[in-house]
Specification:
This protein has one domain. It is built from three helices and four strands.
Length: 111
């Protein structure tokens, strides 16, 4: 096998999860940049709304406040786009789900 990879299954699973989360972040950033480029071009295309956003508190390195469905009117200005796996992880880590847009329901955590 490859000398670059860990030899055991557990560390390979951790690496797999890390790469999946990273891929979600890269895809979200690409979608954001595509949207910004369309806005700068004055495109008639509708603005892309991300599936999920994470709202942060005030200040550098502030902890996350809430997970929202993209386009939620109660999300503040300090939000950034996240992928599905990041939204699930944030909610599992105790970040609050917005009580208006209910991202936990959209993610299948609640019925």
């Amino acid at each position: 096998m490859s000398e670059d990879l860990p030899p055991d299954r557990e560390r390979l699973r951790v690496l797999e999860i890390y790469l999946a989360l990273t891929l979600d972040r890269v895809r979200a950033q690409i979608a954001y940049l595509d949207q910004q480029a369309a806005v700068r071009r004055g495109s008639d295309l509708p603005a892309l709304v991300p599936d999920w956003v994470l709202e942060r508190g005030i200040g550098q390195g502030a902890p996350p406040l809430a997970v929202h469905v993209g386009g939620c009117h109660t999300a503040g200005k300090r939000v950034h786009t996240i992928g599905r796996s990041q939204a699930l992880k944030a909610l599992a880590d105790g970040v609050e789900a917005c009580s208006h847009c209910r991202p936990d329901t959209g993610l299948g955590l609640l019925d």
